[in-house]
Amino acid sequence: MSEAKKNILVTGGAGFIGSNLVKALLSDDRTSKIRVLDNFATGFLKNIKPFESHPKFEFIEGDIRNYDVCRAAVKDIDLISHQAALGSVPRSIKDPLTTHAVNLSGTLHIFNAAIENNIKRVVFASSSSVYGDNPQLPKIEQNIGLPLSPYAATKYMTEVYASVFARNFPFEYIGLRYFNIYGPNQDPHGAYAAVIPLFFKAAIEENPPIINGDGSNSRDFTYVDNAVEANILALFTDRTEAVNQVFNIACAERTTLTELWQNIKTISGCSTDASYGPNRPGDIPHSLASIEKAQILLGYTGKIKLNEGLTKAFEFYKHQLNQ
Length: 323
Fold this sequence. Notes:
Elements: E1 6-11, H1 16-26, E2 31-38, H2 45-48, E3 57-61, H3 67-73, E4 79-82, H4 89-94, H5 96-116, E5 121-127, H6 150-168, E6 172-178, E7 181-182, H7 195-204, E8 210-212, E9 218-219, E10 222-223, H8 224-236, E11 245-249, E12 255-256, H9 257-268, E13 275-277, H10 292-297, H11 306-321
Parallel strand pairs: 1-2, 1-4, 2-3, 4-5, 5-6, 6-11, 7-10, 8-13
Antiparallel strand pairs: 9-12
Helix pairs in contact: 1-8, 5-6, 7-9, 7-11, 9-11
C-alpha cells in the first residue's frame, strides 16, 4: 500500500461494528478522510455523534439499495470497509426479501461502484453462518457447508460475487467472517438483539434471560476490538497472498450459552438463573474458528479474550442502561 494517506468509506458506519471501526480509523495516521454511509436502519446517530467535529469525518445518510447513493458515496475514495447489512438469522427468516435486497443487492452496488471509481480494495463483513451444516470444528475457511438461513445465504453469495468480480475486473477484496462479535454500541433492545447484549440487559435488570435450547449450544464470542483490528489489517496490508481471500475473525475459544450466562452473572453480580426455551430455526449448534490463516497472512492477533471483553462490555451496558 502506498504511503499517501487514504480516504476510506465505511458503509454501516453508524452501526455497532462500523462505529467502533470509524473511531479507530479517525485516529490512524494513515487516513485523511473517513466517510460514513448509513441509513440508520440498525445504526444510531448517537454512535457517530462524537465524531461530528473531527476534521477527517464525513457523513452521508443513505441506503446501499440506492445505486446513485453508492456512486456518490465512493467519490474520491481509496478504500472501502463494507459493514452495512441486515443481521440476524431470525430476521432473515421472517423477511428474506429485505435481507436479500440489503445484504446482496446492496453489496453488489458497493462492489460495482468501487469498480467504476477504480477503488483499490473492498474489505467486507462476512459471517461464520456461511459454514452452515458443516459440523467440523474448528471451522477452516475452505470447508463450508450449505447455508441454514437466508442471512447465511446472502453472506455466502457475497463471497461468491467478490471472487467473481476479482476474476473479471480490476477488483481486490478481503472478506472477514465474523464470529459472534460483541461489545460497545451493540444494541440490547429490539426483537433481533444479539445474545450478549440481551444477557447483560437481563443481568443489570435482574431478569432471567431465555436461553435458546438446553444451554449446550456454543459460540466463538469475539470482542469488537478484534474485528476492528482485522479490518484495519485488511485495509492496509501489502501482502499479495492476503488479497482476494476470506478469513475467520474470532478468538478460537468455544463457550456454551450456559457458561456465557454464568460468566456474565459473575461479572455483573447478578443472582438470577436463566430460563430455557426451544432452539431457534436456522441456528447452528456449535461454532469454533481456526484463526491460523488470519494470523499468518494478516498478522491478526484476536488478543482480547472472553473475560476481558465481557468486562469491557459490562462497563458499557451498565452506563448505557442506567441512563
